[in-house]
Predict the structure of RRM domain-containing protein.
Amino acid sequence: MSRDPISTSPSLDSSTHDVPKPFSFTDIGSANDQFEIVLDQVEDKELEEIKEKMKQMEEEALQLKEMQNEVEKQMEIATKSSLQSYPTLEEKMEIDTRSVYIGNVDYSTTGEELGSHFQDCGAVVRVTINYDKHSGAPKGYAYIEFAEKIGAINAVALDESLFKGRQLKVLSKRTNLPGISQTRSRSRRPRRGRGFFAYRGIRTRGRSKRPWYSPY
């Protein structure tokens, strides 16, 4: 009987050894597709972040606009209130018809004390005691505003009444018109020096008898 020759070459078992696959362009195409997918996902994520930031910026801009509108509204209200706090000339004249000037007021007098002295004349709206703006000391006079004109008329009747040992001077309040001074202006004649005389263009000085002729 003949025997088969024993093969000494190592046997190649496909189950124990990996056989490299042949190179294919299909693999490159699939890799490119996956890369594009990942790139699209990254771009979509960045786009969502940008959209979120834009949304936040729009909300902040809206809040800022609302705050600006509120500030403008408050400023408009403050401007209107400040304009209303300054009465017109007609309103001031009407208030002055209900007000009186009080002079020779004791320096220790308070607004409440002075208002109590005139409370029987009518309803007192406001008592204003004037103070020196530099020293802060009272000037010795005040103003009282009444709710009605009859109050000011009754207050004038208390002229020369005693208050804290002083005789008050009560007068109807005058309206200070802008640009018009209430004090009388005294006209003064121009002074001439002693010993100066003028007669028909001839001027003499002192006791000199020699005339002096003016060239003009």
Q: What stands out?
A: The chain has four helices and nine strands.
